[in-house]
Predict the structure.
Amino acid sequence: MGRAGGDDARRPFGAVRPARRGRGLELLGSLDDVVAAARVVLVVTPPGAARDAARDIADAARRTGARPLVADLNAVAPTTVASIEATLAEAGLDLVDGSISGPPPGVRPGARVYLSGARAGEVAALPWRDVRPILLAGPNGRASAVKMSTASVYKGVTAVVAQALRAADFHGVLDEVLADLGETADPGAIAVAATKAARFVAEMREISSAQGAAGLTPALFEAFAEVYAEIAATDLAAGHPEDTPRDVPAAEVVRRLRRR
């Protein structure tokens, strides 16, 4: 069970984009139906909705009397995982902490799912396709700690390059900056990230929380949250990542990144 970001996040269970149908999925009409039918519930939501999803699942378990294993695969901080675990435990539900790294399997193979917690082996044993489960020893929170660290690099670098190109465009030196950066500047990656920028805002705050818990300054990724919030309000943010071409010219990217 899961809801994607953007428009899909506001649709009911059983209402997904047509491109996502026909992949061996049985679409159910309500969360109660999902919880009652499933042995394992995989939760994928925008990071900012992860706590609400846990509360909804816990409520559905109380209504139905079902007790599926819940694997939260969201991009959240270990402290958020602890909160989700407590919410589910109140309803008699066990949690497996998970995090996803890599491209969507429908785009290209190579995705990895990191899993931690006492029952992580049960989730790893599911019939994954084009996804490699990686078991981490130790309690819940470790899989999410991996995601917070890797996403800080992947999404942080994209945000830095986007800011650099926007500033270069303003100062009239875009071509020179692109020539100097070479392959470091990937306009296509920025274009794809822009379509997901709205949900990246909460993820940047989760990374900030994770780094703050480690005794590091939280300010860096609070600033990146602001960067992605700005990007989410631009023309480049329209559309879906699967439909965004990777060969979009840099000049078009920065033009569509300009404030409305």
